[in-house]
Structure formats: C-alpha cells, structure tokens
Amino acid sequence: MAHVLSQKWLLNRRHFLKGLGVSMALLKLLHALGADPSILTVDEVTPLIAAAGLGTLAAGEVAGTESEVLEALDWLISIGEDVNAVDANGETAMHAAAYKNLPKVVTFLADRGARIDVWNQPDKHGWTPLLIAEGFRPGNFKPSFETIDAIHEVMAASGLRPPPLTDPDGVNNSDFGPRNRKYQAVPNP
Length: 189
What we know:
The protein is mainly alpha-helical. Helices cover 43% and strands 2% of the residues.
C-alpha cells in the first residue's frame, strides 16, 4: 500500500511541476496514509522545489496563487522537506520562486533558512534566481520587478550587494550559455 501511495505522491508532485497544483487536503491525506515524500523525480526535484514553482514557463498563467504556494511550502517544511535542496539541474526552491514570480515566496524561503551560498548559484543554463527574475528564462521574458526587489533585499540582508540589472545586449533567452555574475560583499548595517 505504501508503495502505491508513494507513486501517487510522485504523480502529484508532477502536477506541481506542470503548474496544475494539488490540494493541500490531498497532499496531507497521502502523507498520512504513508506516501513517501523522499522519492525524487528523474531530475531529483523535491516536493518543495516543485511546489515553489519549478516548471513554470509563463508566470501568472498557471494555477496556484502565491498564498497557496506559501501554504504548501510551510507544510512541506513542517514535515521535514529541505529548503536547501538542489536538483540535478542546479535549481533550488529560490530558482523556482523566481520562475513563478513569487516575491513573498523568496522572502519566506530566506526566512525559513534558504542559504544564499546554496541558491545564489547558476543552474545548468547559467541562470541564478536573480537572472530568472530579470527575465532570462524560456517562455516569459518579462522581468518581475517585485521578485527582483525581494531577491535584492534577501541578498543585502545576507551581506551581498546586488548587482545592477543585467544588460540584455548580446544575451537572449534562447542562449543557454553560462552568465558569470560578480557579487560584492557589503557589511550589514
């Protein structure tokens, strides 16, 4: 029975990845019945990374409001999901929140222990959460200034001076090559 429930858990995480969302009642029921949240997808995506918005190509055009995402993340952390998990593509829950344009989720993850030395790294495309928020991603090339501001605030609180907006000259979203960014440490006030 637990194996079947684990498969259902994995299936429901795929719904998160596709942006279809899953009701909290269903997630809690599957967990109560023994579903194993430690099963990862092929790309080693955890339920927390998926719930934060990974798989979102067009923010605002997928199901799941920011408050629903926050509720899911809060519950997943309460059952032991790792806020600092990194998938096989180098993406974290912070990358996912940037894809989905969720500034409150950025702040929530930082408040719940998301470490900047873990999430402020480029994924397999060379994108950090900040670059994603600036619009460097497939699908929706529009920057999310609210998400950029949230990431800047988290960076500043961690002692890093956020860089200026990336100059788009010579960079396009179909160019998946690495983009090196330099961050200067600044003292906390």
